[in-house]
Amino acid sequence: MMSKVPATVEWSEDGGGVVRMIDQTLLPGELVMLDCSEVEEVARAIERLSVRGAPAIGCAAALGMALAARRSQAQNLATLLDDLSRARERLAATRPTAVNLFWALGEIERAVEAAITLDPDGDVWLTGPSLTAEPDDVRAAILQRANEIVADDLQRCIAIGQHALELIPEGANILTHCNAGALATAGYGTALGVIRAAHAAGKNIHVWVDETRPLLQGARLTAWELMTEGIPCTLICDNMAGHVMKQGRVDCVVVGSDRITATGDVANKIGTYTVAALADRHDVPFYVAAPVSTIDYELRSGDDIPIEERDPAEVAYLAHRAPEPVCPDGVAIFSPAFDVTPSELVAAIVTEKGVARPPYEETLAAMR
Ligand code: MRU
Q1: What is the pLDDT of residues 87-119, one digit of tens each?
Q2: How is the beta sheet containing 286-289 ordered, strand by strand?
Q3: Which mutation among 51, 268, 310 tests ligand 1's pocket best, with the greatest number of atoms within 8 A of CB?
Q4: In ligand 1, which atom is closest to the CA atom of 54?
Q5: Which of 135, 154, 166, 196 could cross-link 187 (Cys pair, CB 3.0–4.6 Å)?
């Protein structure tokens, strides 16, 4: 049942403690592990998408905090908390859209709170006079919580896959966009977890893989994961999805998400909204698979989700690889990394707690 893909991101005690991850920028050509020994290296790895996908970004950030604690020379709690505060700020500034990043940093903050004695007003990132824990106790608490976040993420993905089985018909042709697989999580995947579970259940499925410009997460990563698992799949360019739907060759769409509002609007990789609109046009159910940590209960509208804009060079050069740009030098380029699919286009949202259907305001609230 478990993925054959190596751990996407994990803690290793090698070299006095490192955050180890697959460098996804090199896939599928090379499977290279990247060891980050400073929090700045973790932040840069998140920014250049060596580690990517909402849950995996959260895991990397949590482990990055453990790394910051380990590397801090602080002999007293106040200095350690100052170092942690700086690390948190750096990691929080890496990518704005995936709420799992901020969720994971919040979880680490709570672990620190639990490990120290708070002053009565209790903001742990401000040092108070009654902070009494030893720095090493706090370091240990952060590492323990970060490792739990990684382990829990894997279990959540497996649960999502099981809950989604009822949605996937025998012999289904499933279209997916971007990579919401083992590489985008601690393992197994959200959307690809649904696909893995259906395949393991003997449902005889086939997957249409959108290539996912500009950085080709579908072509490079999803196709690689599916082939590694022996799950039948066919790669298409993003602009072919409507054609295969019109031909009646898609039974459902399953994607992951970077942030879901309390009302069920779904941010995911740029192009997801186009797929959802096409699915609506062709009466194909559009499903979203994500852990509850992807739900931002503070937001009521997808319009309020911050959308990352990325380097125009990612559009100008194919997957950052080809030596020549695919466009004239100096052309204006707009490169939003995500879009928002309104809830009315979403047939169901599957979390580790079960399958939510509209009205999402009620069904997602029940999963909190
Ligand atoms: O820019 P990326 O590669 O981090 O974007 C990833 C996605 O959009 C995924 O679909 C999403 O994070 C869900 S991953 C389980």
Answers
A1: 999 999 999 999 999 999 999 999 999 998 655
A2: 233-236, 206-210, 173-176, 252-255, 286-289, 348-351, 354-356
A3: 268
A4: 12
A5: 154
